Amino acid sequence: MNQPILSPGQVLVDRYEVINFHAAGGMQEVYYAYDRTLARHIAVKIPKAGAKDRRFRRGAEMGARVNHPNIAATLDYFEDDSFTFMVEEFIFGRDLHDRLSKDFLFLDPHLAAHVSHHIAKALHEAHKAGICHRDLKPSNIMTSVDFSMESIKLTDFGIAKLAEAEILAEMELFAQNEATLLSSNTLLGAVPYMAPECWDDWKGAGMPMDIWALGCVMYHLLAGVPPFGVGQMAIKNVTLYQVGRYSISKPSWFGMHPDTRELESNLWEILNTCLVVEPQERPTAEDVIKRFNSLTYAAGQRRVGRIATYPIKYIAGGTAAAGFIDEEGLGGNQFFHASNFYGNVQPSVGQKVCFSSYPGVPSPRSSPILLLR
């Protein structure tokens, strides 16, 4: 990696004190910093090489037009002849790509509905302001560190124009040499969630591309993988999907849990409407919000533990498809039934799980129980 532009302790415009380098993407560097004036921690974002870039300014202006709990706030912008940066709300959490890679195999219907609903809220607010994200993917969705993922925030609206130019340039290179895809982190990350019309006319693609991406993210949450695969395979499968020669399959666990069959069916219907080939036939973000608002799903606190007993053995002989979970750090037995266990394998002792707990006699009852990595 190239040497970071800013150094710890450096103070920008006599106000923003850099604490440390936080992350880098294809278009920007991000720093964890402290706002001396308002006594709060913030994120400082700088475009490549720190150079002045009108697209970066335009992106900051777009980000500042949206104010919503599910969108990272744009707080300030500065530029002179040689240097430019943007200040955003710093989100203490992890991005959804990281959570899916390290914590979750997939999400149960309740948690998937919660996450997807909040992403849709963010898109609706942005689209109302006339702003298309253009690069919606799990790595641009921040979550709180808890396993309930109580807080969901969509990021990088503020660099939408910069992302647009970067992806368009790399798409043009890909058309000349397909090997470009494997060397471009920006394009490689965007492809699994990119609507088919983007390849025909990137500049003309609009808000329906965000809806397509939402459908792809929803599928990823439920199945643990993007609907069309990754890399060049995703491009091929989307092309086949356009002509009816490729279809997406329901996750293998769909229909196995009586309590959530209706919710599974509703989520599947929503994501399929998002993945309609013709952009004008997809729902608007407002339409999607209305669908989510009509759903019933549990968004309670999730705890973490390990399966301590499974199955339960009766003294008189035989077993029951049920068991107990030991909650990490607290001990105690949480009762569960296998019908409420969401995993790609059967429950077994030692598995790490997250779960919601409810009062019960003689033991608290747990549901749903989601297998973790």
Can you give a write-up of this model?
By secondary structure, this protein is an alpha+beta fold. It folds into three domains: 11-89, Phosphorylase Kinase, domain 1 (2-Layer Sandwich), CATH 3.30.200.20; 94-293, Orthogonal Bundle (Transferase(Phosphotransferase), domain 1); 303-371, Nucleic acid-binding proteins (OB fold (Dihydrolipoamide Acetyltransferase, E2P), Beta Barrel). Helices cover 32% and strands 23% of the residues. The protein contains eleven helices and 17 strands. It has helices at 54-64, 96-102, 109-128, 160-176, 180-183, 185-190, 197-200, 207-223, 231-242, 261-274, 285-293; strands at 11-12, 16-24, 28-35, 40-47, 74-79, 84-89, 94-95, 141-143, 152-154, 303-309, 312-313, 319-320, 322-327, 333-337, 341-342, 352-358, 365-371. It has a six-stranded antiparallel sheet with strand order 1-2-3-4-6-5, with helices on one face. A six-stranded mixed sheet has the order 14-13-10-16-17-15, with no helix packed on it. A three-stranded antiparallel sheet has the order 7-8-9. A hairpin with a 5-residue loop joins strand 13 and strand 14 (333-337). The longest helix has 20 residues, at 109-128. The model has no long low-confidence stretch (mean pLDDT 90).
